[in-house]
Amino acid sequence: MNQNTCSVIIIARNEAERIAACIEHVQFAGEIIVVDNGSTDATAKIAKEMKATVIEKKGMNFSELRDAGAAKATGEWLLYIDADELVTLDLQKEILEKTRPPARQVNGTPAAYFIARTNYYLGHLWPTKDKMVRLIKKSALVSWQGSLHEHANINGSIDMLRAPLEHRTHRTLAEMVEKTNEWSEIEADLRLSAGHPAVVGWRFLRVMLTAFNDSFWLKQGWRAGTVGWVESIYQAFSMFITYAKLWEKQQREK
């Protein structure tokens, strides 16, 4: 293992429009790995032209995709980013500072770091940030868990970086609907296999109101103006589709 590098792992599927910019913003890394999840466009071709290592792995289990990237990586540190994210200059500098060679690190170096994300929905800045574990010392990564809303099992302490990622998601409503149709199928299957109680009428209202409340009030979508309403109502719609599919699957099992 190369003890002086940070390996960047990018999960991508049909991201020909964004993969170049994503890779361009991580040129500071010693290694760039693109896990191509069955793209039918030029994603893999563009990544290879930009000197990234491309590995092909299909499937909707995102933990398996992230573990596949880790298995290929040779760096001491792993930086996970998605194709719709950009590593800012300030974040680049901070990552380089945190992943410097062990000989110059102080005792008690964290095993992983949370990175905040500045989010843009439909091209508009969202009022609040989220955070997730994205920078991990390879030796401290046990594995990723969860097929869709995955999380990393870390052996060691986790700290927080100051600088955020730039996350430009939900570019168009058409893209959002397409993704919801795909992901809701997985969500419904997960709930079905977990023995979710029978879906009845009142549950639709409850889950939709919960999703709207989370987006509009807890995540302060109200501060975003019209786009806040659009996004929050859409989150309620997305939850409805998931539970409608779950109801449909439960009916088939009867």
What does this structure look like?
- This protein folds into 2 domains: 2-169, Alpha-Beta Complex (Spore Coat Polysaccharide Biosynthesis Protein SpsA, Chain A), CATH 3.90.550.10; 173-253, no CATH class.
- 40% of the residues lie in helices and 27% in strands.
- The protein contains 7 helices and 12 strands.
- Strands 1, 2, 3, 4, 5, 6, 7, 8, 11 and 12 form a 10-stranded mixed sheet that branches. It has a two-stranded antiparallel ribbon with strand order 9-10.
- Helix 2 (43-49) links the parallel strand 2 and strand 3 (53-56).
- It is globular.
- The N and C termini lie far apart (53 Å).
Notable traits:
Spore Coat Polysaccharide Biosynthesis Protein SpsA, Chain A, globular, single chain, 254 residues, 12 strands, alpha/beta, 40% helix, two-stranded antiparallel ribbon, 7 helices, ten-stranded mixed β-sheet
Quick take:
The chain is α/β, with parallel strands linked by helices. 40% of the residues lie in helices and 27% in strands.
Q: Provide the number of structural domains.
A: 2
Q: What percentage of the residues does DSSP assign to strands (E)?
A: 25-35%
Please give the count of helices: 7
Name the CATH superfamily assignment of the largest domain: Spore Coat Polysaccharide Biosynthesis Protein SpsA, Chain A
Number of strands: 12
Please give the share of residues in helix: 25-40%
* Rough outline: globular
Task: Compile the SSE list and pairings.
Elements: E1 2-12, H1 19-24, E2 31-36, H2 43-49, E3 53-56, H3 62-72, E4 75-82, E5 85-87, H4 89-98, E6 112-121, E7 124-125, E8 130-137, E9 141-145, E10 151-154, E11 158-160, E12 165-169, H5 173-193, H6 201-218, H7 226-253
Parallel strand pairs: 1-2, 1-4, 2-3, 6-11, 6-12
Antiparallel strand pairs: 4-8, 5-12, 6-7, 6-8, 9-10
